[in-house]
Amino acid sequence: MSASLFSRRALQATTRRLAVANPSAFTKTPLSRWSAPAAIAVGQNVQYSTTTEATQESRTSAWTISRRSTSPTSLHPILPVFRCTISEPPTHLCRRPMLTYNVSSRPAATTTNITPSAGEEILAAQRRNRPVSPHLSIYRPQITWYMSMFHRITGATLSVGVYAFGAAYLIAPMLGWHLESATLAASFASLPILAKISLKTLAAYPFTYHCWNGIRHLVWDTGAAMTNKQVIVTGWTTVGLATVSALALVFM
């Protein structure tokens, strides 16, 4: 009670001093619209807070007292500010929460005995439901991935052929084989014409295709002809050049 009376009297005394010092501003501006002191704006204030908690109510009171720094344009050397915040919690927050229990009944699980063969059938049926990678047949055929596949096949074929013939030529004297150039030419000349064309085509086309497609890959390494249309055009061009070159080697 004494603290509240002291606060009220201090506020009245301060208001009287302000009215005497600056009557025009006091009469034109309501007291509720006055700006907060500079000390509160910058956080340089002193706060005293007291908290009292009871079973059914809690009351919080805070008084903030600040001093406003004097300036040449300010005629208010000291302005005490009193703030009070009172909060009343709802009474139902202090009640003990009621606990409820929901009881649900479900039928008990049943078990059956199965034979090992039946278990294997169930396991096989579950395996058929597993996700698998899609097969290439679901895609529309494209010249791009066909040529990429044949480029690897022809490269492997040429490599295996060269290494196999080289190894056989090295061990031929030890095994009594005749792989000399004259012997090979005479053996090839004795073959029928259809066999000659087939053998020469099998040897020439992988070589020409891999060479021309290798040049196509080198062009890609420079960053040119990388669009879908250009890849398709260069692909068919490679196939045409490889075919013409292979036929030229066959009928030489």
Quick summary:
The protein is mainly alpha-helical and 252 residues long. The protein has helices spanning 2-21, 23-28, 38-41, 116-128, 143-175, 181-189, 193-221, 228-250, and strands at residues 46-53, 58-65. Helix 5 (143-175) crosses helix 7 (193-221).
Shape descriptor: elongated
The number of distinct β-strands equals: 2
What is the rounded Rg? Answer: 50 Å
Task: Fill in the CATH topology of the domain at 143-251.
Answer: 3 helical TM bundles of succinate and fumarate reductases
User: What is the CATH superfamily label of the domain at 143-251?
Assistant: Fumarate reductase/succinate dehydrogenase, transmembrane subunit
What proportion of the residues form beta strands (DSSP E)? 5-15%
Strand order, main sheet: write it out. 1-2
Quaternary state reads: single chain
Structural class: mainly alpha
Description:
- The chain has 252 residues and is mostly helical.
- It has a domain at 143-251: Up-down Bundle (3 helical TM bundles of succinate and fumarate reductases), CATH 1.20.1300.
- The chain has helices at residues 2-21, 23-28, 38-41, 116-128, 143-175, 181-189, 193-221, 228-250; strands spanning 46-53, 58-65.
- It has a two-stranded antiparallel sheet.
- A hairpin with a 4-residue loop joins strand 1 (46-53) and strand 2 (58-65).
- Helix 7 (193-221) runs antiparallel to helix 8.
- The termini are far apart.
- Residues 28-94 have low confidence and may be disordered.
- GO terms for molecular function: electron transfer activity; metal ion binding.
- It is a multi-pass membrane protein.
- It comes from Exophiala spinifera.
- One of its GO terms (biological process) is tricarboxylic acid cycle.
